[in-house]
Every structure is written in structure tokens, then in C-alpha cells.
Amino acid sequence: MSTNCIAFSSPLSEDHHHSQVDVDPYDLSHFLPAGTLVLPIAATNIHCFGHWHTFCAETESDLAKLMQPKHKSLMRGLRFLTSQKFLAATFFCSDFLMIRVYLIPFDLARVEGALRRRNETAILAPARKLLRDVFSNLYCDPESWQGRIHTHYSPMANHLMSSKLDRQSFVEIYNTLPSPVLRTFDHKYFSDVNSLTDAILRQSIVGLRTNLYSYQCRSVAFMAQQELHPGSSTDPLYVRVQGLDDRSFFVQPGTLEVLENSPMAIRTPGGILCEELGTGKTVIILALILATMDRLSTPKESILDPRPILTPLALHHFPSPQFRDALQKFMRGERRAENIASRIPSLTEILLHHARTHPPPSGVRQTAETFPVSHLWEAYEHNNPYYHHYEEDEDGRLEDLPLRASHDKALNGPRVMYLTSATLILVPTTLLHQWVNEINKHCDDRLAFLVVKDKQELPSAQAMASHFDLILMSHTRFTQEAKRMDVSGLHTWTPCRCPIPQASSVRVPRCTCGNVPTTSPLLQVRWKRLVIDEGHIASVKTLETNLMLLVKCISVQYKWIVTGTPTTNLMGLRFGEGSASSETTQSILKALQQKMLSGEKSGGSRVLDVNGLDSSNGKQEDSTSTSSIGAVVDNFELQYPDEDSQAHNETRRWTEQDRKDLVRLGNMLGNFLEVPQFAAKSSLFNSHVIAPLMSKSGPLPGSVRVLRQIMESVMIRHRVEDVESEVTLPPMQQETILLDMDPYAVMTYNTMQSSIVINAVDSERVGSDYLLHPDNVKELHQTIENMSQAMFWHVDDMLFSVDERLENADEYMKRSAEKLAEGKISQEDFDMLRKALEVSNAAACNTIWRALNMHPNIFSRVYNIPEPIYRAWSSGYLPDGLGHASDIHGSDPYFLMIPERLKNLRAYLIKKPLSSVSSIINYGITVAEEDRYRYQVNMDRALSGKSRNKQERKRSKGSPSKPGTTLTAVVKTNSFAKLVETQTKRKALEAADDGSSRIEVHNNLYSSSPMAGVELRNTTSAKLNYILNEVQLYASKSKFLIFSKSPLTLMYIAEALAVMGIQYKHTIQNLRALQHDVTTFETSEAYRVFLMELKHGARGLNLVSASRVIFCEPVWQADVEAQAIKRVHRIGQISPVSVKTLAIRNTHEEFILKRRDDLKRGRGSSSGKLPELADDLSMRDFIAHPIFLPNPEPPIVQLRYPLLPSVSSSTFNGVQENNVSSLVVDPSTGFSPSGSETSQPSTSSTAQGATTVRTIRIPAQKRKASEVPLSTGSTYITIRKRVSVQTAGAVDRPAELPSGSLQVLGASHEHSGDVVDGETQSQVKKARTVVRFASP
Predict the structure, then answer these.
(1) Which range among 181-195, 730-744, 878-892 shows the weakest confidence by mean pLDDT?
(2) Strands 239-242 and 232-234: what pairing?
(3) What whole-number distance in Å separates Cα of residue 685 and Cα of residue 682?
(4) What are phi and psi of 252, to 5 degrees?
(5) DSSP H/E element including 60
(6) Which of 460, 500, 681, 878 has minimal Cβ neighbours within 10 Å of its Cβ?
């Protein structure tokens, strides 16, 4: 046959495939019409008789002659697929060769499953590859299917399973999951489910104090339906495919298995509650527990064992067949007289059994006191419901127990598993106290809960199963039980022989047996529900971890994960695509280098003051608009692809970070939730979900839809728009504050940059000596950390090696000149080296900068302090010859002092305001001596520890140690004795009378102090100045939550707040204390600032009392930042929220902000997760080309406050309220102007003519029997009579006051309390005397 004239006979009639439908299972009518292959042909004379012909091996060889070479492999693939019954095909020739492709389902009828039994290696694996090739060339449109193709026709390739969903990222799938839709059950069998759903939606939940939002009710109802009737649904591993004849088939994208019938999968009775952060997941769980509190857990299902619900009463004394069979099985066929019921059970016994196995909705415990006979309640409590859990052999068959002889001791008996209505909740240690508060807030006393603390023993299994509705413990406490996972001791044939009280009318034994010391009681209970809060820990792969091992061992009916972050990166944030090219970043950096080297000032003339005003013209400006880096970056056309302009058929490739998230999700589903198909085959999630998504060419068609279907089947999450339609949170303003560093900090930063320059030039930017070499990842991370710390404040007692650098400066320049001549380095690098040596020399020549680096503190500028007093109080940390200093922005002289000394000085002066200069000097000298001796003692202790370790090592080797060299002998040195002597001297000076205690009324008391004019102004940290100014301005009305990833930064802030007298909470590496600090901060008005490490911001803490958030440095990962903000901006917040991020201009911090914003706008990672900061190419380029900072502009924050309390304004907790005549209580009674005590005056006042009425509260523990000193404005008074304690609301008689003092109108006593023990719900009462007085 000629290649140019080919004729095909045996045309396929239009109705041929209908002729033998009932006979041939491989008739085309049984297949799925998938699409058409449209291929160009080379032959010009083809005789096809205008019909469709059957494609087979014989016709393939002839058709291949017409094809171009690139299509011949496709034809060979079609031949293999048709011969192996994966496809059927027909063809038609015109201007193109058109091949209709039909998919043959694996579950094809009347072939006896032959298509499911094909060899994997020889047939299935190559077939999958060929099918993907065919699918990628299919045209799934009716025109091509009908053969209506002309010469100029160019249809768009449309994959059989293609969808716009295939281009979604993991984060986009998560953010667009549909809100839960409740099901309605028609069958009367599900009437209880419908009734419960209606009750929840009507908010008729017994025991719940709180009114839920509608979306919360829907979540609770959906979870209840998922538990009580999970049912089955289409297997989410398959996607529905619609053929060109509108019939639906089901395809698994990973294996390309095609099914005609819908594959079904059993839904798991549990899931992941992953509502948005701050939308009330805790109250949803509590509502679910209360709504189902009357429902008992059911025995674990077994196909062979009926496992009836038993009670001690029913097993031994009820004649029903199920109980007799259970007893006979337990006794292994033996018929003993004592096990036969001696009498018919009474009505009381029947009711007791029914009440335990079918608890009433109201809860029996609430009516315990109404039981007419006391022993009846005791019998009720001991009649615990349980079932017998018999072991199964390796084949899953029950041991043939009744047929074995009773003396056969090799067999294990059944294990008694107690049934319960209780829920076991595991929470992080930091959230334990918060959960207790939430329970007390939302639930009434119908809910019986037990809080198991870390060192507390668990009650017996019977007690936990019967006495409580909720068991709350930390992850840490739960994992402690992993030491007792041996259940072999629970399997026994020994029956309970505990006695029945003779006086009892019901035959319930008072059982005390069953406790096995080697087995945790958690393993003896069939828990109704297990909830893991912050449950993303359930995604940990290593099942060897104690927590996951124990989770796998305990018996649970329903399992729930509660988390706002199912995996690390699912945070509801959407990032775009693409990444900055290295060339673009280089051009940006070059422009910045030229700008900075030319000496141009950063930010131009627009300098913002603390109120955001332009200091040059007074106009309001945005603090984020003045950005040197941002301005330069915006002048370049960044080479990022625009998401909207991308071709619709472009495939997004998933990253290794996505793979990690998928593995975590798979672990949640298979290991914790035990979703049936994934629990039965651990590799299924990887082969059917992960592998198709992580294909080298991009996600396989349909694989993204599979992931979406799986997530929809287990995740309960409302879309943001659905939540916002019901809940309106207060507005949140988020802004970035760009600051210029302090001049001393600029020197530090520039010296650090010079180190990077010298390293780059000296190594020629190649080899392992270069900082950015792949082998130096650890060093690069440390460099970035040091740079970040320098943005706040950083010191080095080695002066960052500037002296060594300058000693070798000539050698550096000489070698660099040679390298420049040889072309090994660029002119740009040579110029940077010269600049690096210049800034190093400037720092090395600055005496003050050198002195500051010798002490690990941020220094404050102190003005108007007498020099002799300064010398005494600065002894030991600055050179004695160092005198006044002045700034480049001002001529006023000042001294530098550390916060610890300032705090001590202020406390001394407040207590003794009339101390003479000599007294202040003597006290300062003593404090300096004490600090010096304390440092020496600490050094001695450190050396003694090293010595002791050395001695222990010698002893371990058999070498004798020297006598007398013990720890005590080393520590108790001369320094220790001098420290004790100095402390005694200091206390004596504090006790000395300066005369102020004898003055009852004295005008302008603090103004008489020799330190009255001393002022504290800006510190050496620009960021600290801004924070202190914000606190000074707003702490009277708002609380602050301040985040930093650096514990050192938070310590600096804490020291400064202590100097100002601001009360704060600060937990360092102590998670147990964190929960108590959160409760104190939330309930006490005295604490105005919470200092928190950034890593704790994602722990589910609730800090809605704060409304102002400050990040001390930019947060690279936006999801981490979002979690931290959600501690404040969540349900329960009633105030507008302000979020400010502090960054230093023209440094890597500003670059981080710009780079991160570009990524968020669609110019970066598509996975929703940014790379590590040190791994980002743009960031590495920025670090590789350092920028030296010029002398900064005048600071935008001019911090200024007096050392002593202001006379012209009253101060509470360090916050000044000018023109307000509120009272300030003297610190000797518990009220210092610094706010060092937990009390504040009332902010309300009532004008009565010319008299202002004020109220002040005095803590009971600070009240003296003889006097209560007060101060107001310029008056210092003493109340001579103790105010008597009255009940709340009662008014005491006016206290006796000296003549001319204020008139006390009356006093009353009030209580306040905080829950300190969630288990007992006891309260610690705090008594305060309330004094009302009038100021004429």
C-alpha cells in the first residue's frame, strides 16, 4: 500500500456499538467518551469512506506511516493501551487524523474483575505513563469529537481532568475551603441526630452560659453530626470526570484508575477544627461537650465479638441472655453456683443499670442530693458501665475461649474497659490556665471537670470515667503516662470479688480492684472524645514520641484536632508567584551603594516626630513613606511575573516546603485521626496524594482536587467572609515605623558592616573563607542575628575587633590594591574596603563608644544631675575621667547612666526625698561597691563550678582531689564577706532618718530634693526610645503587647520600664509561669505592658486586654506575625487595635520589609511560606554588599521625663496626666508614683460646686494601723486614724485629719478575686479600702 494513498475498510457504523450491548462487555457504550486526538497527516490521498474506523494493532502500523516522527510514539502508546484494555479508540481522516478515545473502567461489568488483576510492573506502570501522554493531547470539545475540523482549526488543548483548581497552592486551597453544610436525615433512625442539631442551632445547650454566634453553632452541630452519624461519601481520592456524553466516571489521578461506579469511603468520626485564629475554637469544643454530655461512649467495634455494655450489677445478677452469655464466656464455660442469679433484679436495680448505661440529658450528678437513700448514690457511682475487650489473634480472629480448659493459663483474659461520657483534652502547658478560665467563663457547674497538673497523680479509671465530664491536662503531663503503657496486666480471668454491703438493697459491689500500678488508668477507659489543642503536634512523623505512642494506645471513639494552623504554613495568607532575579537585586544595591557612599542623608528633609508630623512644615505624613530603600526599589522594574498576566495553562510547581506540609497532613489523617483508608495502608497518602502533587512537571491533573476533597472531608472551617458577616472585630491599624539609629549605635552597626566587607574582599568572594559560602550557613545565621540585635542595641567587649583591624589596615589596603590590579576584586569592593577602615577608625577613636561596649546595658542620657552624685552612682561601669557628653544634634551636656543604677537612685529618692547631697553620694558609693562585690562573688561561683567539674572528672578517672577545695570553700571568699558587709551598710543608710518622715504637710516635697531638676531623655537605642514614648503616651488608657525574637531585647525593655515605674509582665523560658502571667495581665489593671518572645505568639494565648502591639523588629515570616497579632485582635477585643513594626532605615530590616511586601503582593513564593531569611537570594545579595550609615538625622522621638515624680502633674504607673488633680499615694503605704503596687485611683470624678471628689483604693496588706499617708498636687498629708474595714457599699465615718488637710468624705471596703485553682474553683480575696475625699 502506498504511503500517499491509503484506504481503510470495515468502517464502524454509527449504530454498530449498539448492536450487541447485552452480549459484549467491551462495547463502546460501556466506556467513557473522553476526547479526541487531532493529529496532522502527511498523506494527501486517503480513502476512508467517510466513516469512523476501529483503532487496533493492524491499523496502527498503517496510520503511523502518515504521522510526523514526533507523533509516532503516541501511536505506539495507543496500540499498547488498546491491546491491554485501558482504552478503546476509533479514527476518522479528513484534513487531520481524528482519534476518538474511550476510557475503559477498571470495574467493567461482566469481566469478573479481570481489569483489576493486571501486573503492576509489566502493564500498569508503563500504562500510566502512556495514559498521561494521551491525556495531555486530548481535545475535550464537541466540535472535534464530531469530526468537524477544518484546515485552520486550532482548538485549545483541554485535559480530561483539567480545572482551574489545579493551579491553586496549598494555602489557597485552605483559604477557599467551603463553610460546613449541615445534613438533614430523613429516616426516623436518625431522629436523635436531627433533634440534637436543632437544639444546638436554637442554642438550647444545657450548661452553656455564653450565647454562641451562628457560625459557632453550625460548627458545633456539624461536629455532632460527624460524631453521631459520620456516614459515607464518595472516596475523596477519586475525582469525578464527565464524558462528552454527560456520563460521569471516577478517576484516581495518581494511579489513573478509572471506575464507572462511585467509590465510597467511610467518613471518620472526628476531624480538624481549624476555624480562623481568634474566632472561638475553645468555646466551640466546650459547647460540643455540653451538647453531648448525656451520651456514653460505645464499645470498640468488632466483627466477631458483640461486646455488650455491662455493669457489675447486670453481669452477675441479670438473667438476660446477653449478660448470661457474657458471664459464661468470661467464666470459660464453667457453671458455678455463685455466678447464677439468686433472685430476679428489683426495679431499683434495673433503674440503676439503665441510668448508668443511658445517662439522662440533665445529668444524674446534679440530683445526687435528692436520692432518698444515701447508699443508693454510692451504689450508682460504683455500678460503672464497661465492656470486656478480648484479644484477637494475628489473623484478626477471636480466641475460642469457651472451648479451652479452665486450667489453660497460657490464654489472656479479657480487659475491662470502662465506658464514659468524659472528654479528654490535651493542651500546651501555657494554655492550661487559660482553658480553666474559659471553662469557668462559658460553662456552669453542671460540667464536672478535672485539671491534672504536671506532678499530680491520676485518679483511678473508675473515678475518671464516672465522676467527670472533662479531663484537662497538658501535653507534658499526658506524655508522662507513656511510661505505663503495658496493658498485659489488665487482661485477667480473675473475677471481681469485692464485697456487697450487707445493708444495701442493691447488689452492687464496692469495687476497689482493677488498678494495675504498671498501667496508666488512661488505658482502662474507652474515652468518648479526645481533643488535642494546638493539635498540629499530631503531624509529627515520629510515632516514637511519647505523646503519639500513647495516643495510639488509648481507646477513643472520636478524635479532634483543634488548631488555627493545621500545618506550619496554613495561615490563611496568600502569596504570589515568582522571585526577584539576582541581577535586579544587584542593580538596586548598586544604586543604594552610590547613594550612601555619596553621603546623601536618608529620608531627605521629611523627618517625622512622634505624632507623625513633618518637622519641616508641620504637615501630617505617613511614617512608612520615607524609605530610601523602598524609593530606590520602586524606581526599578522588578522582573517578577504578574499573576494576572500569566497564561491560564501555566502549571504551578509545588515546593519541598509543600511536601513537608503534605507529610504533616498525612500524619494527622493516618496516625492520629485514623481515617480508615490511610490508617489501613500508611503508604496510600504518599502514593495517591503527595506523589501526584510533587510531580517534576507540576501537579498531575486532578491531584489538587483530590487534596481539596480530602481537606474538605476532615476540616471544619468557615470562610472568613462568613465569619465577618456575623462578627465585626474592632478596626486594626498596622504600620511600619522607620527610625534612624542613635549615633553610638551607628558606630556599632558600621563596624559590623566593615567586618563583612573585609571578609568579602580578603576572600575575593570565593572559597570556604567567604561568609556566604554554602559551608558557612551557621556563621551567616549568626551574622544576621547579630545585625538584628544591633538594630536595637548590641555590644562587644572585644570592640568588634576594630583595633586589630586598624593595626592591619595598611596590609589590607596593599593586598587589595594588588588584587584590584590583577582583576581579582572590583573597584566597588576596593572603595568599600576603604570606607570600612574609615568607619572602624571613627569608632575606635570614640572614647564613649569604647566605654559603652564594656557594659551589657542600654545607657540613658541624664541631664542636670550634679556631677559629684553622678560620679558616685556611675562608679564601676564608666571610666572615672569620662565627663559630660553632647550629641551631634544638640549642645546640652549630659551624663550616661545604666538603668539598674537609675532605678535604685529613683527608689531611694522617692523613699527619702529630702536626703542631702552627701547622703545621696554615700548611698551611691555603697550601691556601686555592692555591685562590684556581687560581680566578684558570681565570678567566684562560676570558677568554683568549673573547679568542681574538673575534680569530678579526676575522681571518675581515679585521681585523688586536693582536700579543702570544695564549693563552699571557694565561694566563701573575701569578696563574699565584703558583699555581706556592704549590704548591711546599705540597709543602714536606708533606715537612716532624713527628716522627711517628721513632716506631715509640706508643699512641693519632691521639688525640695537636690535631684528635683534631673531629667531622663533618649537612651542609646532608637527603638527603645520609641517604645518608651508610646508607653508614656498611651499606657494610661491602653495596654501593650511587645514582641521580639530576642530575649536580650526584651530584657533591655524591662530594665527601662522599671526605671519609668511601669509595671509589666515578662516570662523568660518558663512556660508554666507564662499562663499565670497571662491571667494576671488580663485581670489586673496595674500591669500595662506584656513582654513576650515571638515564639510564644503562636501558642493560642488570649490577650484581648491589650490593644497596642509593637514588634521590635520586622518578622520575616508573615504567618508568624499574623499569629502574634491574633493574640490581641480576636473575639473579645473591644478596642481598636494598633500594630506597629519598628525598623531601622537603610538597613537589612527595611530591605526585609520591602522584600516581604513584594512577596505578599504576588512576587514570590507560591507555597505560602517564605524561605529562611538566610536562604533568600535577594537577602544574601543585600548582605554581600554592605551599606554604611551616615550620621543620623535628629531622632523623631524626643523622650523626656523627670527622675522624680512631677509636681505639676500626677503620675500613675509612670503615665503623666497633666492638669488633673488626682491623688498619688506615697510608696510607704503601697502606692508609689511609679506604680509599683497593684492598685490605681479611680479615673472617675464628680464635681460638687468648687470641690472635686476623688476615690483611691488602698491594698489591705499595705494599710497601717496608725497612718495612711496621701499626697495630692502640692500637698502631703497623713491620715492619723486607720480606716475600719466595712462590707462592700458601707460608708465609714470620716477619718480624723490634721487641720487644713483634705476632707475625707467616707470609706468603704471591697473585695476582688482571681481564680487560682481551676480544679477547686477557689478564690483568693484581695481586700482594699476605698477612701473618698474632696479637694477644695
Answers:
(1) 878-892
(2) unpaired
(3) 7
(4) -95, 115
(5) helix 57-64
(6) 681
Q: Which residues pair with 102 in a beta bridge?
A: 33, 88
Tell me: pLDDT of 133 over 90: no
The answer to whether residues 270 and 117 touch, using CB atoms and an 8 Å cutoff, is no
Residues 6 or more apart whose Cβ sits within 8 Å of residue 499: 509, 510
Question: What one-character DSSP code corresponds to residue 519?
Answer: B
Buried b (16+ CB within 10 A) or exposed e, 1230-1243: bbbbbbbbbbbbee
Nearest Cα neighbor of 1019 from 844, 1200, 1143 is: 1200
How far is the C-alpha of 1002 from the C-alpha of 363, rounded, in Å? 67
**Nearest to residue 299, comparing CAs of 322, 320, 332, 274?**
322
* Cα distance between residue 1139 and residue 1112, in whole Å: 11
Q: Give residue 338's identity as a one-letter amino acid code.
A: E
Contacts of 310 (CB under 8 A, 6+ apart): 323, 326, 385, 386, 387, 388
Q: Which amino acid is at 579?
A: S
Q: How far is CA 409 from the centre of its chain?
A: 52
Entry pTM: 0.75
Side-chain-facing half-sphere of 752: CA atoms under 13 Å: 25
- Residue ranges in 1043-1103 assigned as alpha helix (H): 1047-1060, 1071-1083
Q: 308, exposed or middle or buried, with CB in 10 Å at 0-12, 13-18, 19+?
A: middle
**Given the DSSP bridges, would you call strands 96-103 and 87-93 parallel, antiparallel or unpaired?**
antiparallel
Residue type, 774: P
Model confidence pLDDT, tens digit, residues 1053-1090: 999 999 998 999 997 666 667 878 888 898 889 999 99
Write phi, then psi, for 451 (nearest 5 degrees).
-100, 115
**DSSP string covering 604-641:** TT--B-TTSBBTTT--B--TTS--HHHHHHHTS-----
Asked whether residue 1177 carries a pLDDT value surpassing 80, the answer given is no
Contact 1099, 475 (CB under 8 A): no
Distance (Å, rounded) from C-alpha 981 to C-alpha 976? Answer: 9
Segments in 186-280 forming alpha helices (H): 191-201, 214-228
Query: Residue 699 and residue 690: Cα distance in Å, rounded?
Result: 9
CB 607 within 8 A of CB 1194: yes
Q: Are 1078 and 434 in contact (CB under 8 A)?
A: yes
pLDDT at res. 368? 58
Spatial CA neighbour of 463 closest among 509, 522, 517, 416? 522
β-bridge mates for residue 558, sequence order:
529
Instruction: Please name which of 239, 265, 300, 280 lies closest in space to residue 714, comparing C-alpha atoms.
Output: 265
Which of 1326, 173, 1137 has the alpha carbon at shortest distance from 658? 173
Q: Do 1302 and 1272 contact (CB within 8 A), yes or no?
A: yes
* Mode of pairing for the β-strands spanning 5-7 and 45-47: parallel
Extract the C-alpha cell encoding 1291.
460608708
Question: pLDDT for 303-345, tens place per residue?
Answer: 878 899 999 988 888 888 888 888 888 887 555 544 455 578 8
Read off the pLDDT band of 216 (50, 70, 90): very high
| Whole-angstrom distance, CA of residue 638 vs CA of residue 1158 | 10
Cα gap 1057→1032, rounded to integer Å: 10
Q: Cα 322 to chain center, whole Å?
A: 50
Cβ–Cβ < 8 Å for 1052, 1021: yes
Rounded to whole angstroms, the Cα distance separating 1229 from 1313 reads 21
Segment holding 1158, helix H or strand E: helix 1148-1158
In a 3-state reduction of DSSP, which class is residue 792? helix
Set of cell numbers at residue 281: 475554637
Adjacent-strand bridge partners of 258: 251
Under 8 Å between Cβ of 81 and 131: yes
Q: Is the CB of residue 671 less than 8 Å from the CB of residue 538?
A: yes
The answer to whether the beta carbons of residues 37 and 139 sit under 8 Å apart is yes
d(CA 1231, CA 1225) in angstroms, rounded, equals 5
